[in-house]
């Protein structure tokens, strides 16, 4: 499951790095907004009581990407996902999914907050954190 999470984080970071040349504003300062279509499968863990109990996966969705630069330096990127259908890796329950990912390349910190409401009554609110400096992953959530 950690591998899938790492691959997802790499996906979103790759999205951000695609547009490094799209800086705008004076001296390379400004914000760039664009949509990016994700074709391949992305999976995120469901962490309840400190343990990974499931994964939610999806493919074929659009991410709204917002990147910010200051003096030509890439400062942060926010990726927004909304009203996307993710599916449980274990039960095949379908979830209405929305999330925001915030990545800060200067500190190499990545945060993902997501909310997923399932068709069978499951509800997950997750906070995931990846520290690229230490190579550590932390997840916590509220599961109903």
Describe this structure in words.
There is one protein chain. The protein has 144 residues and is mostly beta strands. The chain has one domain. Helices cover 12% and strands 61% of the residues. The protein has 1 helix and 9 strands; from the N terminus they run αβββββββββ. Strands 1, 2, 3, 4, 5, 6, 7, 8 and 9 form a 9-stranded antiparallel sheet that branches. A hairpin with a 2-residue loop joins strand 2 and strand 3. The longest helix has 17 residues. The radius of gyration is 16 Å and the shape is globular. It starts with a helix and ends with a strand. The N terminus is likely disordered.
Which properties best describe this structure?
144 residues, mainly beta, 9-stranded antiparallel β-sheet, 1 helix, globular, disordered N terminus
């Amino acid at each position: 499951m950690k591998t899938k999470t790492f691959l997802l984080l790499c996906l979103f970071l790759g999205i951000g790095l695609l547009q490094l040349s799209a800086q705008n504003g004076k001296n390379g300062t400004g914000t760039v907004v664009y949509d990016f279509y994700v074709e391949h499968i992305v999976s995120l863990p469901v962490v309840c009581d400190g343990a990974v109990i499931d994964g939610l996966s999806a493919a074929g969705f659009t991410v709204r990407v917002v990147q910010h630069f200051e003096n030509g330096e890439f400062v942060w990127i926010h990726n927004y996902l909304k009203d996307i259908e993710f599916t449980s890796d274990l039960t095949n329950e379908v979830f209405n999914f929305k999330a925001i990912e915030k990545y800060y390349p200067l500190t190499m910190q990545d945060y993902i907050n997501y909310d997923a409401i399932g068709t069978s009554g499951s509800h997950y609110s997750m906070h995931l954190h990846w520290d690229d400096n230490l190579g550590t992953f932390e997840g916590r959530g509220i599961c109903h």
